[in-house]
């Protein structure tokens, strides 16, 4: 089941991400809070990795395709011991490896993303290679729901199905908002479950903020001999009342009062 440790990690991911984004006068805090619980369950309860050997051959691979939510992953990696908070404090500064879209120059990051629609295709290549090497390592990739507007994802899904990449799990951060508005208003995706099932994938819908549901779904995918998709129904800005379901927090940086208010809500 989702653990107390994963819930504590999610809280700390949100708090550290808020601090880093506030200090850097950066953006995308709503996108970070949307997927913080998913990241926490993966790194606390599911994935095999070694922070002291980021390139360990037997590690599971995690790809954040929605690369603008990078501060959530950077924060998680720092909290799990891949690098220090002092290093992370350079986020957004000139010559820092901690770029505003996720960068493979950071220990523990597999792939630089942010040009939406690329992360899944990269994950497919990694999963196929691992399968041909008969490796037991798994590949997990988080996609934004708005990112599914990109046709490259559907090409990748056809490939996943054809080559039966059962070592790959796709997680959709289904917060129903993208950079220009509601996903249904920009390009309506229709019934995602039916779409994915039509490709022959195992599909499970969950509350993307319930650690128990996320963990159970990830455990189920490990038992299936099929590529898997978890549709995680989430809330943009989750955890801070004035940020939740608000498009402006895709871009906005909190002022001092908003920062204090948000931090108090996260840490209560």
Binned strand content? 5-15%
* Unreliable spans: none
Look up the CATH topology: Rossmann fold
Assembly state (oligomeric) = single chain
| Count of alpha/pi helices | 10
CATH architecture: 3-Layer(aba) Sandwich
Distance between the termini: 23 Å
Instruction: Name the shape in a single word.
Output: globular
How many domain units? 1
Give the overall average pLDDT. 95
Coarse structural class: alpha/beta
Provide the succession of SSEs.
HHEHHHEHEEEHHEHEH
Full CATH superfamily name: Thiamin diphosphate (ThDP)-binding fold, Pyr/PP domains
Give the CATH level 1 class: Alpha Beta
- Main beta sheet strand tally, sense and closure: 5 strands, parallel
Strand order of the largest sheet: 1-2-3-7-6
Rounded radius of gyration (Å) = 17 Å
| Share of helical residues | 40-55%
Strand tally: 7
Description:
This protein has 268 residues and is an alpha/beta fold. It has one domain (4-267): Thiamin diphosphate (ThDP)-binding fold, Pyr/PP domains (Rossmann fold). It has helices at residues 4-24, 29-46, 70-79, 85-88, 119-132, 151-162, 183-186, 192-198, 211-223, 256-267; strands at residues 61-64, 139-144, 168-174, 177-178, 181-182, 202-207, 228-233. Strands 1-2-3-7-6 form a five-stranded parallel beta sheet, with helices on both faces. The longest helix has 21 residues, at 4-24. The mean pLDDT is 95.
Key features of this structure:
single chain; 12% strand; 7 strands; 10 helices; Rossmann fold; 268 residues; two-stranded antiparallel ribbon; five-stranded parallel sheet; alpha/beta
């Amino acid at each position: 089941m989702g653990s107390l440790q994963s819930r504590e990690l999610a809280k700390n991911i949100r708090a550290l991400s808020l601090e880093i984004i506030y200090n850097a006068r950066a953006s995308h805090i709503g996108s970070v809070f949307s997927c913080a619980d998913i990241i926490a369950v993966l790194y606390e309860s599911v994935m095999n990795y070694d922070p002291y050997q980021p390139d360990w051959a037997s590690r599971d691979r995690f790809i954040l395709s929605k690369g603008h939510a990078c501060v959530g992953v950077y924060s998680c990696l720092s909290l799990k011991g891949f690098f220090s908070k002092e290093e992370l404090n350079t986020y957004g500064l000139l010559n820092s490896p901690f770029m505003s879209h996720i960068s493979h120059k950071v220990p523990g990051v597999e792939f630089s993303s942010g040009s939406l629609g690329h992360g899944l295709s990269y994950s497919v290549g990694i999963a196929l290679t691992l399968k041909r090497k008969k490796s037991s390592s798994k590949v997990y990739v988080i996609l934004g729901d708005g990112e599914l507007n990109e046709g490259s994802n559907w090409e990748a899904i056809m490939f996943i199905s054809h080559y039966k990449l059962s070592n790959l799990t796709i997680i959709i951060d289904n917060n129903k908002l993208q950079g220009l508005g509601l996903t249904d208003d920009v390009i309506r995706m229709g019934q995602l479950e039916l779409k994915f099932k039509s490709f022959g994938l195992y599909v499970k819908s969950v509350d993307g903020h319930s650690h128990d549901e996320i963990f159970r779904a990830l455990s189920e995918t490990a038992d299936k001999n099929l590529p898997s998709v978890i549709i995680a129904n989430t809330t943009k800005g989750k955890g801070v009342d004035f940020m939740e379901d608000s498009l402006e927090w895709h871009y906005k940086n909190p002022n001092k009062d908003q920062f204090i208010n948000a931090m108090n809500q996260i840490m209560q």
